[in-house]
Write a structure and sequence with these properties.
The chain is mostly beta strands. The protein is built from no helices and 13 strands. It has one domain. The protein is globular and about 40 Å long.
Length: 129
Amino acid sequence: MADGTQVTSADANIALVAGGDLTVSLVDAGSAGVRASAANIIDGDDDTDIVAGSALLTATGAIGSDSDTLDLSVNTLTAKATTGGLFIAEANGLVIDSVSIAVDTVATTGVSSTGTATTRKDRSPAARW
């Protein structure tokens, strides 16, 4: 996503999947869930980046950075940064626990389906779609 891009929903789950870096300025799912998966998940501004009831964040690199944390306002978080660090700032406290997020997707053919991203007991993310 380009810096400054906003994604919002009316309490519906949001999934963002990038083959490269994902720059987050605002993803607001209300009380629903957010799944973000990318090489690196980068803070796009100084404001809150993710607002959600739950968030499942996975990166093959880093989530946030030591000089620019990813700013969250979530109730429950599961996160994994494989080769980088995990740098977050939470607005009001959170629970680290398993998260499961179902999202409807539409293929280029027009066929829709529901996929679920979840975490296993060991907190390693397992995506099924």
